[in-house]
Amino acid sequence: MTVSPFPDALRTEFISVLYETQRSFTEALESYESTQTFVTTPWEREEDGHDYGGGGVSMLLRNGAVFEQAGVNVSVVKGTLPEPLSRRLLDNNEFRGRALFTACGVSLVIHPRSPKIPTTHANFRLLTVENRWWFGGGADLTPYEVNEEDFSHFHAVLRRTCDIHDTNAYLKYKKWCDEYFYLPHRGETRGIGGIFFDYLGRGEDIEKAPDYYRFVESHCYALPSLYLPIVDRNKDKTFTDKEKAFQLLRRGRYVEFNLLYDKGTQFGLATGGRTESILMSLPPLVTWDPHEKEYYSPNEAALLEILRTPRSWSASSSFA
Amino acid sequence: MTVSPFPDALRTEFISVLYETQRSFTEALESYESTQTFVTTPWEREEDGHDYGGGGVSMLLRNGAVFEQAGVNVSVVKGTLPEPLSRRLLDNNEFRGRALFTACGVSLVIHPRSPKIPTTHANFRLLTVENRWWFGGGADLTPYEVNEEDFSHFHAVLRRTCDIHDTNAYLKYKKWCDEYFYLPHRGETRGIGGIFFDYLGRGEDIEKAPDYYRFVESHCYALPSLYLPIVDRNKDKTFTDKEKAFQLLRRGRYVEFNLLYDKGTQFGLATGGRTESILMSLPPLVTWDPHEKEYYSPNEAALLEILRTPRSWSASSSFA
Fold first, then answer.
1. What residues of chain B, 242 to 281, have a C-beta less than 8 Å from chain A?
2. Model pTM?
3. What is the distance between the alpha carbons of residues A119 and A113, in angstroms, rounded to a whole number?
């Protein structure tokens, strides 16, 4: 086995996929809006050292008719990591000093205005630490009511995209997603899941890098077909104040997960990323009510039941 | 020096102070409200083992005219701690197994409706782990505009209460408070501080326990004079939508601190406390806006400046 640095050419190609994903997905989202557009904010990361730093491009749409907040960020950074993080990522307690790292990825969080449209999150990234490298990412759905057609669609697209490359991948990464997006203090998953994977290719032969690259690339390109049909099906439905109130409460769980448990948030804040870009995942308007359980409707209680006991949403990849 | 367990009689006395603080402070807050009252929720903590468990009494007032949310909780729990937490609290890496602990404390977070009235938080507690014991706690203020009279009043009461027992305490604990309630990713303190202390009496002779007990007791009894004059001075002021919007943004920082950094929240969630009681610190309505900085008024910008560079608010304890 050859342990070699990740090839520059493939990393460059991946970065172009990230920016292309950002461009095409924001363009698609913008087409739903008549007055609001994405605001683009390039940012630079500061770190002393020859060619350390990097930065990214954050794109944010606020107060849309369909999307209350949509953020799609690309970051491409390079530098050194704190020693404890270096040890953990290299899985080597003997490591001394700050490990050299690069990270590039696209990250998106879409908070629709209507509780009839689920929130979605996706993130695809390549991390290199010294001579090690791996891909990570995933996509997941956070609904505010039970809609089995939506849930099955989302999982079927993910399954199909996985199956092109590896027919064992979907079930493995679906399970990982349910386990990762879990709030132990609530006994609930954040949503109805999707896929989550990390350390993809870590320690493997460099010859395999293109396979993993293509797996992740396919998921980037599948994003519009993954989410936009769900938006289309639900965007013109009316909703009640009570349904909106439930959405705001559930957004509280979103905040709890992202600040208490999400490794991406912690990694971003620990490595000097742009705070406003990292925290664009936080919803624009949120409520907490310690007495919320007294007010659940039957559909809301049914959703909670699903979040307490993750289900299978795609028995096979054959779907209409 | 005698390392002895904390005396049961003094612990019992402290617990009665906690409940008395809860009773009197909620009564005082309720007197501002005409329609809303505190809802009292007793809860029990589950842990297998002879007399393990305990619980608490949570009191919550929501949707008041003056207080949008006010929570005052007492908890009195007993049981065992996970090994890593046991080691950390005993400051002993050799410790094996789960340490026996007891914790009792009062915790309050008051989120007023008007941005003219600052949010306040206070917490006073006694922790015992095996044969070690210590007090911890503090009180701090989170304003939404610059009001030097309020800030000086708050710090002067804390200073006076400290000075009765130890004229070195205030400055030490004021500094600790500024350092503790700090959001590194924002470069801001959560508010204009107050006092924060921990490990009070740890490793000291049991003869000193009553001194520390009286220090904490004095702060419990000072709570009404600490906060209510600030409510009185500001509650009838009118405020604009823009000022309210800024308050909701600042509440986002409150959530960020409590979920990302607060040790009390993490300790509570890790030791099986009641989630709704621990998270009653989270405000009822919160906003995030990655572009918020573009909309600050001069007063808001001045407040931010204070949060970036903590100031002295009480030069001495002599005040009107």
1. 252, 255-256, 259-260, 269, 275-280
2. 0.93
3. 9
Helix (H, G, I), strand (E, B) or coil at B285: strand
> Torsions phi, psi of A167, nearest 5?
-75, -5
- Could you please report the per-residue DSSP string of B61-113? EES-SSEEEEEEEEEEEEEE--HHHHHHHHT-TT--S--EEEEEEEEEEEEES
| Residue in B71, B275, B284 closest to A186 by CB | B275
Helices (H), chain B: 8-30, 83-90, 148-163, 169-180, 209-234, 241-260, 263-270, 275-278, 298-308
Tokens of A148: 């089995």
Return the residue of B nearest to A62 by Cα.
Answer: B289
Scan for tokens 């912690």, then name that residue. A266
User: Touching check for A302 and chain B: CB below 8 Å?
Assistant: no
Helix (H, G, I), strand (E, B) or coil at B317: coil
**Quick one: B9 exposed, middle or buried, by C-beta within 10 A (0-12, 13-18, 19+)?**
exposed
Which of B111, B121, B155, B219 does the annotation list as catalytic?
B121
Q: Does B161 touch chain A (CB under 8 A)?
A: no
Residue keyed to tokens 């306040």: B120
Query: What residue type is assigned to position A99 of the chain?
Result: A
Q: Give every residue of chain B whose pLDDT is below 50, as ranges.
A: 317-320
CA distance A9 to chain B (A): 33
* Nearest-CB residue to A290 (from B256, B260, B280): B280
Nearest-angstrom CA–CA distance, A216 and A193: 18
Which residue is closest to A270 within chain B, CA to CA? B185
What residue in A sits closest to B288 (Cα-Cα)? A284
Q: Closest partner residue to B60 among A276, A285, A290, by Cβ?
A: A290
Q: Give pairs for B53-56: CB < 8 Å, separation 24+.
A: B53/B77, B53/B78, B53/B79, B54/B78, B54/B79, B54/B102, B55/B274, B56/B273, B56/B274, B56/B277
Dihedral angle computed from the Cα positions of residues B23, B28, B30 and B34, in that order, rounded to the nearest 10 degrees: 150
| Token pair of A204 as six digits | 């493997």
pLDDT tens per residue, chain A (320 residues)? Answer: 556 789 999 999 999 999 999 999 999 999 999 999 999 999 998 888 878 889 999 999 999 999 999 999 999 999 999 999 999 999 999 999 999 999 999 999 999 999 999 999 999 999 999 999 999 999 999 999 999 999 999 999 999 999 999 999 999 999 999 999 999 999 999 999 999 999 999 999 999 999 999 999 999 999 999 999 999 999 999 999 999 999 999 999 999 999 999 999 988 898 888 999 999 999 999 999 999 999 899 999 999 999 999 999 987 644 43
CB atoms within 10 A of CB A15: 16
Q: Do A282 and B186 touch (CB under 8 A)?
A: no
